Amino acid sequence: MQKCAHTAASSWSSVCIANELSPGLISYSEATRYSADKHADAATWCKANNKPIPQHTLYPRTKGFIATVNHLRSAAHIKAVYDVTIAYASGSHFMSAPNIWETLSTPNMNNSWRFHVDVQRYMLEDLPRTDEELAAWLEERWMEKGRRLESLRQDLVKGLPWLNITST
Questions:
Q1: What Rg value do the Cα atoms of the chain yield, rounded?
Q2: Distance between CA atoms of residues 129 and 61, nearest Å
Q3: Interhelix angle for 131-158 vs 62-72, to 10°?
Q4: Tens of pLDDT along 25-40?
């Protein structure tokens, strides 16, 4: 089994080098889809564990993120971690995502939906080194993410367009 895994990894590395691809990894630190019930559960957990309660997100699962980052530090081709925040709205309904059928069947979705994608890049070498500091770093990214989303929600309520948002 170990030989197979090594062969697969070697083969993928060869393909990536030959085609100048750089593989990446997508990690959803919330570990599940957002819902009001899940947010209430997360808020209860945060209060019991003396953690900040994020807005519009669930509290991130830090252990998986820490393990992933610590492993990726030894991967020569991985240089950065990207934090992607996606916001969407239909009418006045903030963070109410279109379903797959709406996505496929609605022509000119931008006429009835708003979308905003925010991407932050963090160099892997600049991330904290200890598990505790890395957990705190991820927690702070989630608090920032919540503030960005809240700013978009407030703009939606005021009828303002979604323009560039700066992190606070």
A1: 19
A2: 18
A3: 120
A4: 777 888 788 888 999 9
* Model pLDDT, residue 165: 53
pLDDT of 53 reads 94
Q: Who's near 96: CB < 8 A, 6+ residues apart?
A: 88, 89, 90
Residue range 42-66: average pLDDT?
94
3-state SS string over the chain? CHHHHHHHHHHHHHHHHHHCCCCCCCCCCCCCCCCHHHHHHHHHHHHHCCCCCCCCCCCCCHHHHHHHHHHHCCCCCCCEEEEEEEEEEECCEECCCCCHHHHHHCCCHHHCEEEEEEEEEEEHHHCCCCHHHHHHHHHHHHHHHHHHHHHHHHHHHHCCCCCCCCCC
